[in-house]
Amino acid sequence: MALLNAQHVTKRFGGLIAVDKVDFDIEQGMIASLIGPNGAGKTTFFNCVTGFYRPEDGQITFDGHRLVGLRPDVITSRGIARTFQNIRLFANMTALENVMVGEHPRMQAGLFGAIVRDRATLEEEKRVVKRARELLEFVGLRGRENELAKNLAYGDQRRLEIARALATDPKLLLLDEPTAGMNPGETAAMVGFIRRLRDELKLTILLIEHQMKVVMSISDRVTVLDFGVKISEGSVTQVQQDPRVREAYLGKEYGQEPA
Asked: What is the pTM of this model?
């Protein structure tokens, strides 16, 4: 059974259909990529899965539970975490504090505990700090705990955002263009890191990515959107050979099979 299953998902903005009756599923332990030209509906689909948008039609099921209509924080607590195309860190908070924020959905202490500072609350805070330090070390930011997020290098900010997502203890991690703006060396390091997330943390990963070398080197399955419609899906080889994909990226003239 698929970990995530979407059926006939449709999202409209006025007269524009951004996602048009998309069927999609991802199995546990898979690294899958969602690709397509700019404006194809990829991030809109992510936003439907994570509760930022509510689709007008269709159903989305995660781990056997329906997601449509749930708030983003509830969906996060169910086990779905994400990063964003444009990094969204708390710029004036430290790296450690950013990761601690990610742990909030799993914390038990409430307002009373925060005021009284009882033993259970203090012990939980210690566990949260310890876990945040472990995640920073895992993503390669050991020793940077007290640096403000805005002062970190671009690639380190990407890793910090992933650490914050990991702090929610997800089963499914959605990465929106994780290598955007990176040089070839940083990109190669990120590809290796994404594999570690799957292999060491046993995560299922769905990514949006424009760099085709990344997609083709890391994906178990590739899904292609164009103008909100799923036009192709399959292995890397199958998608590479699909004339509809070439047409979407290069235009109809180049998408035609040679005579």
From this structure: 0.87
